[in-house]
Amino acid sequence: MEDEAKIPARYFVKLQGILADQGIDFNELLTLSDISPLTINKPDGLLRMSQVERLIENGLRVASPDSALTLAKHIKLSSHSMVGYAMLSSPTVEYALRLAARFFNLILPSVNMVFRRDEHSISLYFSPTMSMSTRCLHYHLETIAASVHWELHELLQGKILHYDLYLGYPKPSYAERYKELQGARCHFSWDELPGIKIVYPVEIANYPLMLSDSSSLQMAEEKCQELVKHAIANRKLADWVSMMLNEAKDCALTLEDLAHTLNMSVRTLDRHLKSEQTNFRDIKNTVRHQRALKLLNETDMSVTQIAYELGYTDPANFTRAFSKVAGVSPSHYKALNI
Questions:
Q1: Structure pTM?
Q2: Residues contacting residue 330 through CB under 8 Å, at least 6 positions apart
Q3: What whole-number distance in Å separates Cα of residue 286 and Cα of residue 203?
Q4: Taking the domains of the chain in order of start, what are their residue ranges?
Q5: Cα–Cα distance between 53 and 61 in angstroms, integer?
Q6: How far apart are CA 312 and CA 290, in angstroms?
Q7: Domain 237-336: what homologous superfamily?
Q8: What is the rounded average pLDDT of the residues 320-335?
Q9: Please, what is the angle between helix 134-155 and helix 237-247, to 10°?
């Protein structure tokens, strides 16, 4: 377990007060999740992803399902340590957001942030960079989406901003709470890469920040660069690729798509997968087959419908691929398992 990727514990400490308000014993939840209170309360404490998954799974069993939105309101720019300090010292909103994208690995190594600007808008993209359960992924994304809203609200000194928020998960039962994100036009079940896209009007780019300080900014950026050099991301990329394909609706993601998400070249990602004794094609075929089995076993979809759901343009190709692995055609398999 020592080589398992780790993420900062500091954000999860904030759950203590939130859960206490709901009558939940946080220390008991930590024990159930195999987390030491000493670890989670350290300023530089780190949690294994498996611990985070257990904490979220156990927490959602007893806490209100919208706890991620509550947690997000407690996350301030200052919560992000040196990166937050650098953002607050930035001259403009655009500079602060570009800086956050450069050093987002120091904020949350499990997620990647990309900044884009064109003549009409500023767009932020957030995608997972570590393998995690679907429930854990949605919790991460929901927390990020809401915390970015409140942090930009902080940078803009309370100014209400109208923008589009594209969320890569289904509309939750508590969707009414998203109205707290005043100015956000929410679009659930975003169909591109599993993640979030936030689109702002380009006018915010040059908005001056109240705490701008060039000397403080230089010091903070230098410190962030040092931290990045020493940050070791022990990611099992084969597991991550599998997760991303599972989360994508039709398994249509390409190796190029995934390499772009990780800010690395296709050749580099391919080399990492080979070092893990696999390749993109094999992972994609495995994921497709597993999803085919699930759809055949658990739905009334026809073989043709399943083929299109899995991204095949010709159902005959699906039948050949499935038969090669299962030894029987999908229609025969479905008949045997009715």
A1: 0.71
A2: 292, 296, 303, 306, 318, 319, 322, 323
A3: 46
A4: 1-63, 64-222, 237-336
A5: 12
A6: 15
A7: Homeodomain-like (1.10.10.60)
A8: 90
A9: 90
